[in-house]
Amino acid sequence: MATSMDFKTYVDQACRAAEEFVNIYYETMDKRRRALTRLYLEKATLIWNGNVVTGLEALTNFFEMLPSSEFQVNMVDCQPVHEQATQSQTTVLVVTSGTVKFDGNKQHYFNQSFLLTAQSTPNNTVWKIASDCFRFQDWATS
Amino acid sequence: HNHQVNSVQRRERWWGTFRRRFPNWSEPDSPSTNPSFRQQQDGDATASDTYVDSAVRYTPYAIPRYHRRGTFHKQDQTPVNMQREQKLLERSMEGCRLNGTSGSWFKITIPFGIKYDEKWLLNLIQSQCSVPFTPFEFHYEKMQAHFFVDNASIAFALKNVSGNIWDQDNERISIFVSPSDAPRSVHKELKSEKVQQIKPTMKKRDDSQEALDIQRLSSEADFMGHDEMAANPSKYMATSLGVHEENVTKVESAGEMDKKKGLEPQQMRAGGNALCTTFPDKSSNINSILELFPKLSCLDGQESPRPTLGGTEAHKKLPTCKGSVFGSETLKNLVLQFLQQYYLIYDYGDRRDLLGAYHVMARFSLTILFNPEDPASSILCKYFKESRNLKMLKDPYLRVRLLKHTKRDIVDSLSVLPKTQHDLSSFLVDVWFQTEMMLGLSVSGVFKEVEGKSHGCVRAFTRIFITVPTGNSGLCIINDKLFVRDAGPQGTWNTLPIPMVTPYSSSMPALSQEQQKMVSS
């Protein structure tokens, strides 16, 4: 069982990863859309307002088809996921909320949650998206 | 296993009851179990850090014009294959090295050459090359820069330059050499390739900058590991736009630039400027310019043909929003049952009784967001001191403290939150992750506060549960993230109700026409 000190380090690491990830993700989504799929695992799944998109190829097509975006993130939170669930693969749940304007559409409030999993290389740790769930808060009326 | 069989039977019975009540609730598509893979195209070439300044001598060179003759034969340019090619090259060069005869062509490749301005790069190479060379048909292909030489000894000399030149970031530049056919028409191939790559980005507002920027970025295998690049995107943008920036400056001085657009010239004279060095043939020059600058309305005094890139930004539509995603009937059953039981206790029981629903090392955090100007929102203040938003909260100790991490702490925290009544019929569920060991889901909906000053206030919430299976075929919560906000500007229930089995009424509401359409889409 982790001591409190370990837990703090654990949480710090998760928070840092979450903040860095969120910055990169939305900047990439808005300004370098074509690079976005690099942030996803090959088998990653996206559920976008109830539309299920699985695998890098489908994700590439999906993001290509989506109009250009302007995201404003107001809320970020994260939680490390216990290894019992992840079979010892370091995983973090990241949750965001804010507003988004897709070109040609009205502005929406959105909620998004990511499951990030750490992939270690000799030089550093890279976080990739295993799962992504995106919803407009007013999805039903849009 | 007996356990599982029994639970399946139980679920089927439950589901049968459910189905009878909601005959129109169709099964949404299950996520594919065999997702398609895309081969990672870009190699993981890493550059070592060195601190040697490279002295660049300006050496003029000439690029003659060549007629087109057909398409290229594309080669696999991964580092491993390049090494193989190097070995082949060396063997093939044995015979003609001392000859120095013209007529045998070699393709020179600079991986990640897209970063570099053509003139700068060629000058740099020449500065370290023991023999003067004439590069033919210099072009960029994906991340690489290529050109041809027609002489084996020159090719050999160029090979030796590899690793002995450094760019402005002190990254070593590699050069690969391979035998090749005489250069054919590069522009037809280049155009079709570039159209593929640029096409999606050309539709956006920031197009030309993005095209090269994206190419630049997609060369990084571990994109997120490159902090410097992420922190200084404009620096890398400038480098990759080297060629065009330079030429655009020249055009600008002629007074024909639309300065507001930055690097998107509205009118450009293609005939006399330095772009010709890259695209010797005039018609290919025009085509290439158009690809990179679709806003170009006038070229050489003529109306440019509209780029046929398949549509404009305005035609892009958002996908239709759909309802709950469960993945399978079994999961739907399982999740709905879990949510019912959870909220039954959460709303009507003692929340400490939820102890059994949580894993011993579970995590919970809460965030609330509200409009500070809304008077009704001031009631949310009681949630606020427990609210964890990394955007607002920087204190590392508080960040840890607000993440509850034992089940005891969690149910204690839940117990002090105001009493609620959730409208299960408003619930929207997305099951976004599923393995044998783990289930990840989001629930969104509305609830009412049923005590104190905020009695009757409607809130909207999103809750994320990550669960692991338990012995009695239930779900055990390992992560719980609650997000509470105002329900809407008028505090109304603005989500379309999705019928669910509610624990406190025995008769089910019939689905309206609209709702039937909604659930069957």
UniProtKB/TrEMBL annotation, chain A:
Entry keyword annotation includes Cytoplasm: yes
GO cellular component, one term: perinuclear region of cytoplasm
Domain NTF2 per the UniProt entry, residue ranges: 17-136
Record PROSITE patterns: NTF2_DOMAIN (PS50177)
Subcellular location: Cytoplasm; Nucleus
InterPro entries, A to Z: NTF2, NTF2-like_dom_sf, NTF2_dom, Nuclear_transport_factor_2_euk
GO biological process per UniProt: mRNA transport; nucleocytoplasmic transport; protein transport
Keyword list, A-Z: Cytoplasm, Nucleus, Protein transport, Transport
Transmembrane segments: none
Physiological role: Has a role in nuclear-cytoplasmic transport of proteins and mRNAs.
Record PANTHER family: NUCLEAR TRANSPORT FACTOR 2 (PTHR12612)
Protein name stated in the entry: NTF2-related export protein
From TrEMBL, chain B:
Chief localization: cytoplasm
GO biological process: poly(A)+ mRNA export from nucleus
Protein source organism: Propithecus coquereli
The NTF2 domain, residue ranges: 334-484
Ranges where the record places region Disordered: 25-48
Compartments, as annotated in UniProt: Cytoplasm; Nucleus
Cellular component, GO annotation: cytoplasm; nuclear RNA export factor complex; nucleoplasm
Protein name, per record: Nuclear RNA export factor 3
Keyword Cytoplasm: yes
Keywords noted in UniProt: Cytoplasm, mRNA transport, Nucleus, Transport
Polar residues: bias regions: 27-48
SUPFAM superfamilies: NTF2-like, RNA-binding domain, RBD
InterPro entries in UniProt: LRR_dom_sf, NTF2-like_dom_sf, NTF2_dom, Nuclear_transport_factor_2_euk, Nucleotide-bd_a/b_plait_sf, NXF1/2/3/5-like_LRR, NXF_fam, RBD_domain_sf
